[in-house]
Structures are given as structure tokens and as C-alpha cells.
Design goal:
The structure holds 3 protein chains of 3 kinds. Chain A has 9 helices and 10 strands. By secondary structure, chain A is an alpha/beta fold. Chain A has a domain of about 60 residues. In chain A, the strands form 2 sheets. Chain A has a 6-stranded mixed β-sheet, sandwiched between helices. In chain A, strands 2-1-4-5 form a 4-stranded antiparallel β-sheet, covered by helices on one side. In chain A, a hairpin with a 2-residue loop joins strand 9 and strand 10. In chain A, helix 4 packs across helix 5 and helix 5 runs parallel beside helix 6. By secondary structure, chain B is mainly alpha-helical. Chain B has one domain: MetI-like fold. Chain B contains 8 helices and no strands. Chain B is flat, with a radius of gyration of 22 Å. In chain C, helix 5 packs across helix 6. By secondary structure, chain C is an all-alpha fold. The relative contact order of chain C is 0.15. Chain C is about 80% helix and about 0% strand. The chains are: A alpha/beta, B mainly alpha, C mainly alpha. Chains in contact: A-C, B-C. At the B-C interface, helix 2, helix 3, helix 6, helix 7 and helix 8 of B face helix 2, helix 3, helix 6, helix 7 and helix 8 of C.
């Protein structure tokens, strides 16, 4: 596999009971790329992300991370996950830890770093997302936007090869969405490889490199975000973007 | 052959003393029923006093509850049987004394169970009652208590389980309940294994069977929305 | 020596024995409670069954009966314990079983997202339970655990039944010599009440110290 392909996904299938959620998904992510995934609810977007870091095991299909096939049963899953950053829709910050410790705990426990070193890196990450002065606050004392930024710092601190964002702004109040998107945009511009599942079309158009439109468990359209959003080719995509446009109609630069 | 004869000896002895131990169940249940009932009679008024009474009354209740929840049952049994009741001039038999002590103690615990239940009935209920023109007493009796009692139910069932297990401690006063009889059997047969296991089995059945039974009754009479908390 | 002087010096010895019992029983029962809860929540079907069965058994049996079985019946199976250790073991098993219920409830009340986030970081299940789940569960279970500890303090008096010379045993013996039940037993009662109250204060303070905003008890 060429050196600059960070993630390769081949024919992923996943069913829950009689319902097949993923019906053969394949794509590649190059280093530095920001991939956008969107689609109506039920299209399988979240399931896809969870299969990619193997929180959920796909029924069929293979996944390669930096050349290593991670769907192989002999692989050490925990080591693999260290290379994948995950930002959840509900943040999932550790409630009993300060922001600083939330960011440093992965380094201490999983990467076995020394406490001082982990702290240093954690502070650096918090600085990067603009939350250095809130380092000692607990999650309950932070706003939604701040929580999500800490979550991004937490993922970043592990120095992953790729970051997955699972609808990172969907649980946020409108006025808090902006601060999180700003951080994500900055990271995208720094060529941090990422996959973002989102409805934020402005964000997609400004920093997205390729957009994958999912419907009913398959990727049925792909291309540069601007192209896919303005000139969708298939019916379902047309309907979806029409609805988004009506609902959100927000200008983004 | 030796195994069989040993088993035979056991069998004969078991069928002898099993009824004897089983008879103790009546006494055990008597202790439990008496203790629970007395605890209820004491605990409910105390809880009302604690929530609605003025400061002095509240303090008295709190001291009572504190005392009976901070002193071991064993100590209470001896204190009352050998000390308090004789000093007051009463010569009580072990059963009555045990029921009284269990009752006083349970009253302390139940007062807190009901207090919590009363307080978790929304304040709006009480205000609405008063607004209708009900007196304090009427409001408490007709509106608060029916709801509080239902909310308190699970905690109360728990109290049943606790008193049931504590009733065994009353063997120190010689009440002829299950454990006392078991101990006599052990002393007589010099065979502690089976009798104690039988006693244990009885208590387990009474505990789980009893709570299950009571919960079934609760399910039948449940009101949607009034869920109790343990 | 006056009655009181003799009484106090006598009772102090018993009190020390009680404190010894508690010093061992309290921490070990907490550990057992945590262990049983983790076994029931995270263990495979077999471990979970054993742990569940153990808890059901110890919660269905009165502590007295457990104690007497440990001291009187187990020897027939070849297992011998001194009075002190029989008592301590019975207390630890019984209290641990009750505590495990609180901890188990607390663990199950923790949002699944916490687990997901821990896994996403690459933590093993063990790391996840130790660093993320238990710190939160323990805080949530603390009021219930406190309750059980208070019971331990009070039920330690049962050790008298197997011959341990703890507080109550000593008081009872003194009473058989001096025959002043009211003074003797009410003082004993107050000493227990004092211990129970101190323990309550200690655990409330602990709760305060460990408190984290947003991590309130369910």
C-alpha cells in the first residue's frame, strides 16, 4: 500500500439482527486529508466510524491502518486504537478528572509516559485548543463547546495517525458550535488527517477534501464537497442537500 | 458400609429434630411481625413529627432515631431485659421483651424511611391541600401519607428483611425461635453442620420468599408514577 | 477503686479488641465489596454466577448464623478459625456482600460513554475499570458503603458469641461480677453510639473530600 494512504477500508458489512446497517463500504484516506461523511440518519455513518476503530466489529470487510490490517484477529486492538483519535458526539469526558488530566490520562496509562512529560504535552494540547486557563476545571464546570475542545485535545495528545469526529457539534447549542469548528478547521489546515461525520456544510466546503454521501448503508456519491453539495447527481443526495439547505441555510466562509 | 450407617444415623436424627426447629419459625415470624408492627406504630408518628413538628419535637425524634440506630441490638437487648424493664418494675418474658426492643429499634429506622418518603412527596401536594382549605392534619392524613406510604414501601420491605435476620440475635434471651432451637439441637447431637445449614436455609427462604411475596402484593396495588425508592 | 474506675479500666481492654476487629474488617470488607461488584459486572458467566451466588447467600443469611457456621460448623469440614478470625471473616464476607450491591449499582449507573471514550484511547478493560470506572463508581457508592460500615461497627458486638473479648463481652462479664446492668449497659451503648457517630462523621468528611462537581451521587 502506498506510503501516504493512512486508512483503507474494503467492503465493510455490518448487521444488527435482521437489519443490515453497512452494505459494502469502501474508501481510502490519504495523509493530511480531511474526509467528510454525511447522509440522512440511519444511513450508517456512526456505525461506520465505530467499525473503523473496532469499537464495533464489522461482519465482513477489511480495514488497513498505515499498512497494517487491523481487522485481522491477531492484532492488538488497544495498540491500534492509540493511533486513532476519536471525538464523540456526547464528548464523553471523564467526569472525575480535570480537563488537564482528561488529556494526560491516555498518555500516562496507555502510553506509559512519565507524569511530568504527560502533563507538559497535555498543557500544550489545551493551549492549542485555547483552553489552557481551564486546565484545572472539571467537565461539569465547562460549557459544551469547551468540553468538546478538551475532547479534541485528548484525542490529539495521543499523536494519532488519524482522528475520527462523530458528529462533533450535533450536541452543542448553536452559539457554541463555532468555537469547535474553528479548532477543527485549524487542525485540517495543519494537515491533520481526519474523518468528520457532520451536517455542517459550511465546514465541509471550507476545509473538506472529499465528501462521501452515505445512504442506506452505502456510499452512493463522492467528490469534492462543493461539487457534491451544489451538484448532487443522485436523487437521494439531491433531496438530502435540499433539506439541509432549507433547514440550515447558514453562510460559512 | 460405614458411610451408609453414618447417613442412617443422620437421617433418623434429622427427622427427629427438623419439626422442632421448624416450630421455631412461628416464633421467628412472631418476633418479626411484632417488631415491624410496633416499629410502624412508633415510626410513622415520629416521622410526621420530624417533618411537620416544631424544633423541639424534631430534636427529640432525631435523638431517638440516633440512639436506636447507633446502638447494637445485642446491647439493647441486654440493656432492656436486665436493666431498664426490671428497674421500671416489669418482669418481662424474653419474647415480649425482644419484640419491644425490636420494635423500638425498628421505630427509629422506620421513622427515617417515612421521613424520606414524606419529604419526597412534592411540596406542591401539601400546598394544594391547604389551599383547598384542609387543615394541617387533614392535608397530612389525606394527601401526603397515602403517597408517602406507597413511596416508602420498598424501604419498608427491606426493613422486614433486616428484622427477620436480627430476630436471630434474640436467641441470647432464650426466645424459642429458629436459632435458639438450632443451638439446642447442636448441643444435643454434637453435630453442628446439618442443623446450622438447616437454620441457614430457613432464614434464606424466609428472607427471599417473604420479600418476593410482599413485592407481588405491592405490584398488584401499584399506582403508576408513584415509584418507591429503596 | 470505685465502681467506675474499675469499670473503665476493664472496658478499655474490650474496646481495644473491638477496634482491632474493625481495623481489619472495615478495609477488607470494602475491598471485597469492590471485588465482588467488579466480578459480577465484568466477569464471565461463571465468575459472575459464583460472585452473585455468594452475595445472595451472605445477604440471605443472618450475620449471626454466618458467624456461628464459620466458627462451629466449618471445623467439621476441617476448617478451623480462632474466635477472632472467625468473627472477622464472617463480618468481612457479610458486609462485603452488602457493599458489593451498592458498588454494583454505582458501576451500572455510569454512562456507557465513559467506557467508549476509555476504549477509544486504547485502554485495556483493566485500565478502563481501574482508572475510569471505579473512581466514579466508588464515589457514587460511598453513602451506601458508609451505611454498611456503621452496621459493621454495631454488629461487631456479635463477636462475643464466639468468645472474642470485645467491648460487649467484657461489659457483660463485668455485669455478672458487679450486677449494675443499667450503668454498665447504657455506658456500653453510648460507647457504641460514639463509635458509630465518629465513623459517620469520618465518612461524611471523606465524601466531601472526594467530591467532584458534576459527579453527584445518583
Amino acid at each position: 500500500m502506498p506510503d501516504d494512504i493512512v486508512l483503507r477500508v474494503e467492503e465493510l458489512y455490518k448487521s444488527y439482527g435482521n437489519i443490515t446497517v453497512l452494505k459494502g463500504v469502501s474508501f481510502e484516506v490519504r495523509r493530511g486529508e480531511t474526509k467528510i461523511i454525511c447522509g440522512p440518519s440511519g444511513s450508517g455513518k456512526s456505525t461506520l466510524l465505530r467499525c473503523l476503530n473496532l469499537i464495533t466489529r464489522p461482519d465482513k470487510g477489511r480495514i488497513w491502518l498505515e499498512g497494517e490490517e487491523i481487522t485481522n484477529r491477531n492484532v492488538n486492538i488497544n495498540k491500534v486504537r492509540q493511533k486513532i483519535g476519536f471525538v464523540f458526539q456526547e464528548f464523553n469526558l471523564f467526569n472525575h478528572l480535570t480537563a488537564l488530566r482528561n488529556v494526560s490520562i491516555g498518555l500516562e496509562v496507555v502510553k506509559k509516559m512519565k507524569k511530568e512529560e504527560a502533563r507538559r504535552i497535555a498543557l500544550q494540547m489545551l493551549r492549542k485548543v485555547g483552553l489552557e486557563e481551564h486546565a484545572y476545571k472539571y467537565p461539569a464546570e465547562l460549557s459544551g463547546g469547551q468540553k468538546q475542545r478538551v475532547a479534541i485535545a485528548r484525542a490529539l495528545a495521543m499523536n494519532p495517525a488519524i482522528i475520527f469526529y462523530d458528529e462533533p457539534t450535533s450536541a452543542l447549542d448553536p452559539q457554541l458550535i463555532g468555537e469547535v469548528l474553528e479548532v477543527m478547521k485549524a487542525l485540517a489546515r495543519e494537515k491533520v488527517t481526519g474523518i468528520v461525520v457532520t451536517h455542517e456544510m459550511g465546514f465541509a466546503q471550507s476545509v473538506g477534501d472529499e465528501m462521501l454521501f452515505m445512504y442506506d448503508g452505502k456510499i452512493i456519491e463522492r467528490g469534492p464537497p462543493r461539487e457534491v453539495i451544489r451538484n448532487p447527481k443522485c436523487e437521494q443526495a439531491k433531496r438530502f442537500f435540499q433539506r439541509i439547505h432549507e433547514l440550515y441555510a447558514r453562510e460559512e466562509r | 458400609m460405614r458411610v451408609y450407617s453414618k447417613l442412617l444415623k443422620l437421617m433418623v436424627t434429622v427427622w427427629d429434630y427438623l419439626p422442632y426447629i421448624l416450630e421455631g419459625v412461628w416464633w421467628t415470624l412472631g418476633l418479626v411481625a411484632g417488631g415491624l408492627a410496633l416499629g410502624f406504630i412508633i415510626g410513622l408518628p415520629l416521622s410526621i413529627a420530624q417533618v411537620y413538628g416544631h424544633r423541639i419535637l424534631k430534636a427529640i425524634v432525631e435523638v431517638y432515631a440516633w440512639f436506636f440506630r447507633s446502638v447494637p441490638l445485642l446491647v439493647l437487648l441486654f440493656l432492656f431485659y436486665w436493666g431498664v424493664f426490671p428497674a421500671l418494675g416489669y418482669k418481662l418474658d424474653p419474647l415480649t421483651c425482644s419484640i419491644l426492643v425490636l420494635g423500638f429499634r425498628s421505630g427509629g429506622y422506620q421513622s427515617q424511611i417515612f421521613r424520606g418518603a414524606i419529604q419526597s412527596v412534592g411540596e406542591g401536594q401539601y400546598i394544594a391541600a391547604r389551599t383547598l382549605g384542609m387543615s394541617k392534619l387533614q392535608g397530612i392524613f389525606h394527601i401526603i401519607l397515602p403517597q408517602a406510604l406507597r413511596i416508602a414501601f420498598p424501604g419498608w420491605v427491606n426493613e422486614y428483611a433486616i428484622i427477620l435476620k436480627d430476630s436471630a440475635i434474640c436467641f441470647v434471651l432464650g426466645v424459642m425461635e429458629v436459632l435458639t432451637r438450632t443451638r439446642y439441637v447442636v448441643m444435643a447431637t454434637l453435630e453442628p453442620l446439618l442443623p446450622y445449614f438447616i437454620a441457614g436455609g430457613l432464614f434464606i427462604v424466609l428472607t427471599y420468599g417473604g420479600t418476593k411475596l410482599v413485592n407481588m402484593v405491592y405490584e398488584k396495588t401499584k399506582i403508576p408514577g408513584l415509584i418507591g425508592r429503596m | 477503686m470505685s465502681f467506675w474506675e474499675e469499670f473503665i479500666s476493664y472496658i478499655l481492654r474490650g474496646w481495644v479488641a473491638t477496634l482491632e476487629i474493625l481495623a481489619i474488617s472495615i478495609p477488607l470488607s470494602i475491598l471485597l465489596g469492590l471485588g465482588l461488584a467488579v466480578a459480577r459486572v465484568y466477569g464471565n458467566w461463571f465468575i459472575s454466577l459464583i460472585a452473585g451466588g455468594f452475595v445472595a447467600l451472605l445477604r440471605g443469611l443472618p450475620l449471626v448464623v454466618t458467624l456461628l457456621i464459620v466458627f462451629f460448623a466449618l471445623p467439621k469440614l476441617g476448617i478451623y478459625f480462632s474466635p477472632f478470625w472467625a468473627a472477622v471473616i464472617a463480618f468481612i464476607m457479610c458486609s462485603g456482600a452488602y457493599q458489593s450491591e451498592y458498588v454494583r449499582g454505582a458501576i451500572r449507573s455510569i454512562d456507557v460513554g465513559q467506557s467508549l471514550a476509555a476504549q477509544a484511547l486504547g485502554m485495556t478493560k483493566l485500565q478502563e475499570v481501574i482508572h475510569i470506572i471505579l473512581p466514579q463508581a466508588f464515589r457514587r457508592a460511598l453513602p451506601g458503603i458508609t451505611n454498611e460500615i456503621i452496621y459493621l461497627v454495631l454488629y461487631s458486638s456479635l463477636a462475643y458469641l464466639v468468645g472474642v473479648q470485645e467491648l460487649f463481652a467484657v461489659a457483660k462479664h463485668f455485669n455478672s461480677l458487679q450486677l449494675r446492668p443499667i450503668e454498665i449497659f447504657s455506658t456500653t451503648a453510648l460507647i457504641y453510639a460514639f463509635m458509630a457517630t465518629i465513623a459517620t462523621f469520618f465518612f461524611r468528611k471523606l465524601e466531601e473530600k472526594l467530591k467532584i462537581p458534576g459527579l453527584e451521587t445518583a
